């Protein structure tokens, strides 16, 4: 049984880059795709959600999605859910135990960023699985070869289902660089030791292959992360999503939420236990 990648996007959009990206990853990862169509969701099914008269009947919907699945470069199956997004994904996770969830991020003309960040928050709360958010526009490099992991310097513990990082690095022959943003112009050697200790405790140290952390001075964490990603020519940005930020009402103003809205390159969120 091959591992699964669950894809969450508007499958009837003209530019379906999230599905293409997921399929492109599935080939080297030797995974199959699960196309999860959530009918009662304004982000994933905008036409059906906004215009009930435009809803396809069950047979037509199944046929169109099956046709899309059969055109993928890896085996793909279709699941249609009448549940709301968190419940639909939780059920898919229970059934498939996927290695990755992939969420399409449409442009602001299609969906306000608050809708996208809200969907990501709901998913990370309901199912603490790696979540890859793929923008519709703004990026071009594939497959990703330069992964950048942004950290805050504090220790973190990932869930047991976070093997996707090692799998991506191996399958794509990619590199991983740790990025740390500080508001101190001269953080000193202690900052480097602190970051290395946090990475060591997380179990990700060997994935960096001894690369020194890349430090960026900036007064705003989000802007510093995006600047650092540009300096490192990153084509995939990785961020640890701490549980306390997901549960609080301030999530929409958090650095994670800002990156979901503004990252021009695909963003991989790794939920942490703390």
UniProtKB/TrEMBL annotation:
InterPro entries registered for this protein in UniProt: UspA
SUPFAM superfamilies assigned: Adenine nucleotide alpha hydrolases-like
Domain UspA residue range list: 4-135, 145-270
Superkingdom per UniProt: Bacteria
Gene3D superfamilies membership: 3.40.50.12370
Pfam families, sorted: Usp (PF00582)
UniProt family annotation: Belongs to the universal stress protein A family.
Protein name according to UniProt: UspA domain-containing protein
Organism: Hymenobacter sedentarius
